Amino acid sequence: MAVQVAGELLITAGLILVLFVAWQLWWTNIESGRAQQDAIRDLVQDFELPADDPAPAGQDYGDPVVLAPVDTEGDTFAIVYVPRFGSDYAVPVSSGVGTAVLDRLGLGHYPSTAMPGGIGNFAVAGHRQTHGKSLDAIHTLVPGDRVYVQTRDGYYTYVYRNTQVVLPNRVDVIAPVPTDPAAVPTERFLTLTSCNPRFGSQERIIAYAAMDSWLPLSAGPPAEIADTVAANTTGGR
Fold it and tell me: Where does the UniProt annotation place the signal sequence (predicted)?
């Protein structure tokens, strides 16, 4: 009798474990995906659509406009597009890197770092697996790949440079000059951070990029992401 009861308990425990794994690897992605879509829809409702006659290609727009810091955790203020991650990749960026943000809203912004287009380091974090797995493909980036950031002011184009794998205590990767906390920044950086390996968290994988150019929202999106931006705009109106 005792053996039978023990066996039934083991079977029940096994089923619970399977359901938990399915919830983690499948359902959390669905829930987070819906929350991210809602966040993007709400954000773009506040964007002013481009003029009927977009600004000429190659026009110099001067220094980029930079958003004021967003202090309220969970407030969404930008969208990141990475063509290397897929033609439909568009993930919101919200203030904060706590679980309430990362588990639901895609990418979280380290509040102490620069805003998009600002001199210094615009640093964000995201999950590699579960909860939308917004940075699952971070390891596939190739030097020269473009990462686009859209805010209510415009589009900021960053060019990926290199990847580094570090221990979790390496907070210097989000310094104004990545890995050099004592340096005074003169460039505009973007740093993506996530867990490593894909199904673990013993390390952190860090992808570095530098800003290449910017366009005001009125100029229309860069050609590489135009279709994705249009889909988001249509979905948000």
Answer: none
